[in-house]
Design goal:
The protein is an alpha+beta fold. It is built from 3 helices and 5 strands, in the order H-E-E-E-H-E-H-E. Strands 1-2-3-5-4 form a 5-stranded antiparallel β-sheet, with helices on one face. The structure holds guanosine-5'-monophosphate and zinc ion (ZN). It holds the Pfam family HIT.
Length: 116
């Protein structure tokens, strides 16, 4: 379950402190240390999965639950009306830097398309 070399597994274990936005038995959401928008929260499964490419079919409910929690956190923060962006970076060309799957929730500024 836990990878001893993984920063996000250490955040889950509270070995690295973070500002937690949401937590339940299978999901943790915390504020990004280097925010790219006024709201920038990272959602992760507590299960160590390297990336979207490493997801198993049996993880589909877990991924669906993460999206549902993003919906709820966005609603609770009052950002749903103006809108927000959910981002998953996968692998080198996707710009992934931490190899524990995560979904960025970005909000409270106008985001542009295409992304860089
Ligand atoms: P990626 O680039 O892999 O899509 O996103 C990784 C994100 O994790 C980055 O936005 C980075 O700022 C964030 N991050 C990396 N280390 C830490 C940390 O120790 N604490 C927090 N809160 N965020 C982190
Ligand atoms: Zn991990």
């Amino acid at each position: 379950m836990k990878d001893p070399n993984c920063i996000f597994c250490k955040i889950i274990a509270k070995e690295i402190p973070s500002k937690i936005a949401f937590e339940n038995e299978e999901i943790l959401a915390f504020h990004d240390i280097s925010p790219q928008a006024p709201v920038h929260i990272v959602f992760i499964p507590k299960k160590h999965i390297v990336s979207l490419s490493d997801v198993k079919n049996e993880d589909s409910a877990l991924l669906g639950n993460i999206l549902v929690q993003i919906r709820d956190v966005a609603k609770n923060l009052g950002i749903a009306e103006n809108g927000y962006r959910v981002v998953n970076n996968t692998g080198k060309n996707g710009g992934q830097t931490v190899f524990h799957i995560h979904f960025h929730l970005l909000a409270e500024r106008q985001l542009h398309w295409p992304p860089g």
